[in-house]
Amino acid sequence: MIFATQKGFKGIDHRGAFGADLGVASEMVNFRINESGALVKRQGIRHIFEADNEINGVWRGILKSEEVIIFAAGGKLYRISPYGTPEPLYIGNIGNGRCVMFEFNNWLYIKCADYYGKYDGETFMEVEGYIPLVAISCTPQGEGQIFEQINLICDKRRQRYSANGSSMFYYLAEKEIDGIDSITLDGKPYEGEWTSDKHAGTISFKNAVPAGLNNLEITYRKANGTDSRRRILGCSHIMMFGGNSDGRIFLWGNPQLPNYRFYSDLADGVPSAEYFPVNGFTVIGNKPINCIVQQYDKQLIFAEDKAYYSYCELKTDSVGRVYSSFPVFSLNGEKGCIFETDGCVIDNKPVTLCRDGFNMWESTAVVNEKNAINFSAPICNFVPSFASSSNKDFCMFDFLANRELFFIFGEFAYIYNYGLNAWYSYDNFGGKHHFVYGDLVYFAKGKVLCSFGNHQEEDLEHLCIWKSAFLGNGKKDCNLLEFSADMYIRGNCGVRVQFEKSGNAVKTLQEFDLNDQGERFLRITARPRRKRALPFRIWFTDMGTGKMNLYGFVLKTRDTERRNRFGLL
Q: Which domain holds residue 303?
């Protein structure tokens, strides 16, 4: 008699049809591996709320010291409590289409294709945008020092004059303006009489403005053009990045400008999500930008088969002002990211899907150099379908609480447990607009708002399958006498153990109906009495609604030869 004992599991590995490692799976669906190496059922999906329309964005966080879930559906924004029975509270209209939400300076910003707003838990408003100070120290003739650029999302500008005490006629920096919004003198509203000529871009005061240094400020409106605001609102991806103390908002993914990267600037010296200067962009290569991630103090920028890097560089302009620049340099001319996604980093290493599979970008000893290391060889049977698919509606995110990298492809989720270096998969998963919050992932499946993660009992009825690799070298044979497994169950579990000999049909060894067993540890045993079994593999299936952990199993065999010349497996 020979006993082969396996404690712990190692996930999927497609690289060999035959293997000596009992813990390696040739197929593994709806099972995951926990920290101790046990095979456990995937977490449940909880249906939180069903909206009247398709959900286009999800966010969870704290606003005004209260924890809330915010979601967009049918062109409207709602909030619900993450605790108890959710009752949606209408916040306001935002317009239809994909909605991107991010927190900045205690505000939640909401960006759609035709709307940009913000919400702090009480006040909801459309973002007008920072009004830039385009020129300072101007003479009445309009000549002065250029100071700030026009804001793409705001059609207002400010111009500041040093009045000479005698002039009553002042020129603006532009003609054909749309109107004058306000005039201040020494920071207070100007109370004197004045008229304007919008065509000429001039202001005529009834009395001379008192002399002073930058004491007169005129705010006027002039439309930037129909496509100005859409350059920013048309972007589908957002990240925060700043090589120095000031954080900037970076945007990309505008279908009309696919290889453009936009970024915000300081508003009155303060980081802002409401100031996108007209020249605050970089044109990168000639292919659409698919992904941007941060690694330490650098950005890694990926197109389909290209990679670039960028960082914050401080420069000084002609009048001595220090400003931030974000130059771009080539990193790799062969690999990049083949689908559009938000950035994903695990253990400070960016991850992208290249044509050869998933790659981790690791730093080398050479400054600014990265090596793209393929780590998806264990799922090599799946990778070709990713790379050749015409449907690039993929999704990738890091579930840090479990140290799992999720890759969503259709209704399947392929998971890399980077804590254990193991791959597995879930079916009937799908969903869009994933947002990770602690040990939960929020996402939308059509009209249904869902959460997924630890400590959830909902929707646990999944067909869970684990198949070993074929065991044996094909040169010797043995009789399979017994299979036994140590497990923990809670609730109703239906377990089936099956046997498959290479080239033969699958045969059920035994089924175990573990309903109403409560919570307990137990050992299940099957005695197949299969002669000349090698090469073979074991199937382990769970069809119940309860929880189940499989810690290991034992195979009891007897060599058909008198001497074990080749080893058991």
A: 246-430
